[in-house]
Amino acid sequence: MINFFPLCLMSLFSGLLFLSSPGVGYGFTAWIAVVPLLILCKIEKSGRAAFWGFAAGFLYYLALLYWIVIVLGRYGGLSLWLTVPVLALLAAYMAVYTAFFAWIMSRTMTCFSPVWSAPVVWVGLDFIRGLLFSGFPWQDIGYSQYHYPWVIQVADIAGHHGVSFLIVLVNAFLFTVIFYEQDRKIDLFQSRQKTHKHYHLLPAVGVVAAVMIYNTVLYRRYTEPSQVPGANLAVIQGNIEQDQKWLPEKKQLALETYLALSEKVLADDNVDLLIWPETALPFSPPQDSLFPQMIKELFAKQSTTLLSGAPFYQVDEKRITIYNSALLINRQGIKQRYDKQHLVPFGEYVPLPKLLPFPKPLVETMGNFSGGISSEPLNVGRIKAGVLICYESIFPDLAGREVRAGANLLVNITNDAWFGRSSAPVQHFSMAVLRAVENRRSLARCANTGISGFIDPAGRIIATTPLFETCFRTAEMPLLNNITFFNRYGHNFSLFCAFFVVPLALVICRRKRLNIL
Q: Which of 185, 245, 340, 384 is catalytic?
């Protein structure tokens, strides 16, 4: 007879976690989503727990990352029989971490309190996933709280991983109180049982209470009116169709769209920095003849500075190097340049080209991009802009590096047209919110088709644009210069959690030798 209870628990975990994800928007369900998985880890042996953990993760990531089919199919030109297997492979890879979490928890639940081991292992595995194979830290559980700024203030200490830790800690606490055997516990080093009181729950209550008090105090501090100098910013959402923007005959039309919107903004407001999205210029300045025309029209009546994305060619005697760049432009021309450092595999370059001889990246470009190396901010008067191009915004270390280099404003320029009308633009936007809080910096986000907008240092979303509309937004945003604990030391928190997985593995081996399991 089939036991449907594990299947129900697996489905409940996947469903609750999916409901909490940005784009669906019920972030509160994250606080109970992991409980069903922990129950599975308790009632099943380690091998079966890992199987159910994998199945639960696979189901969740299939639902979360369905937009991969849109990216590869509609814009990558691949057929459905290729895009669906790619989605399945990516979901399977992501599910390996859920399976490993379930395996470890099943093996260690009787010798370590899950209240502490579960959040440590969860965050440690998230950290590892953000590093392996160039890293894909997409939608860690902490991002589910992006719409609740009073919950995420602790990110300026431990980053978004700290928010993830808190969520899993609460889940493990609920599991322990409701489901865990409270009167017996196996002593790891003596094969005997002893009475055990759950006094270890009290520190967990203290940690949660302390974090919530900290969140309240810091939220009030960063939302109170202050005399901090600000900057007038404008983001321009051109809404250029992805399959049109690179056509030679459409370059002029795309440029005119941005110029018309910018002229309207500059006529009504005194703008310190005008921001266009990633590859808004579908040509490489200064070689293209459209570039001097753009400068003449844009700066004819107003004195401002433009930050725009564009492909940038650098020619030497041996080869042409292409960068995905952000250019700081005034009436004299290009003032500074930032080159994207963390490129998208198979999107902006083909990794291991000799082993994987794809004819070109799936994303339509003019060739393989090269990665930049500098995190120096772009200077516009009192503005020192740290630029994050496209999915660089999902990597906390990149934003932190730019802030430590002197950035007092974060600017994320991106082209999310690839995602189509899916939940991916919301998922992508949610991760930028945590970058603002971690670094206590205002963040301006400019996307070709949305979501564009502004986020303040408290993580409040000040303004956003609708998807697939030609529009703009303006705001005066504060320019802070303080360095947070996260900037200095907070990256070590998730690193510590990752290292903690190693002694847990050693404990598992020791228990196996003692025949306790």
A: 340
